[in-house]
Design goal:
Strand content: 5-15%
CATH superfamily: Winged helix-like DNA-binding domain superfamily/Winged helix DNA-binding domain
Distance between the termini: 44 Å
CATH architecture: Orthogonal Bundle
Number of strands: 4
CATH topology: Arc Repressor Mutant, subunit A
Largest sheet: 4 strands, mixed
Shape: elongated
Strand order of the largest sheet: 1-2-4-3
Radius of gyration: 19 Å
CATH class: Mainly Alpha
Order of helices and strands: EHHHEHHEEH
Structural class: alpha+beta
Oligomer: single chain
Helix content: 55-70%
Length: 166
């Protein structure tokens, strides 16, 4: 298995963040003030699009919480799950330090977060056979299955939201 460098992890995290923002309906550069017409009233179409984006974002957050059954899967821990899923899909392995770097947290915090993922049965650690000083972190079979079904669920929600907006 090929290893990620810290720079590659940071680049992957950036790409994942961009994809996640698109999935959450915030891919248009973030929230902005409503557009105004000449008479000062809000235009209906931009307001409706904003409401659809907000609704989709809330739905996705609720689906994740319900699907994984834990409020722990947010912020840097969620970033780690995304990094692990991407690494697995590309046949790569991530070290604990790669995950912490990608999530933007100190190694000590990253190790606590990895322990939380292990307690939830979503990730497992092993010793890198090429460099026994490194700890490799991978999704468990259950972690992989749950991530895949989560993305299937939010894909359906996103498609339904686009249908409603059209």
């Amino acid at each position: 298995m090929q290893q990620f460098s810290s720079q590659e992890v940071a680049e992957l995290k950036s790409r994942i963040d961009a994809i996640h923002e698109l999935l959450a309906g915030r891919g248009g550069g973030g929230l902005s003030a409503p557009a105004h017409s000449r008479n000062g009233a809000s235009e209906g179409a931009p307001q409706a699009a904003l409401l659809n984006q907000l609704s989709l974002s809330i739905q996705i957050r609720r689906i994740r919480r319900n699907h994984f059954g834990s409020a722990e899967l947010a912020g840097p821990i969620w970033d780690m799950m995304l990094d692990l899923m991407l690494a697995e899909s590309q046949g790569r392995a991530l070290s604990a330090s790669d995950l912490a770097t990608g999530a933007g947290v100190p190694l000590s915090s990253g190790l606590r977060m990895i322990s939380a993922l292990e307690r939830l049965g979503l990730a497992q650690r092993s010793i890198d056979e090429r460099d026994r000083r490194r700890t490799i972190v991978q999704l468990t079979a259950d972690g992989t299955d749950r991530m895949a079904t989560y993305f299937e669920k939010i894909g359906v929600v996103g498609q339904n939201n686009q249908t409603l907006a059209a």
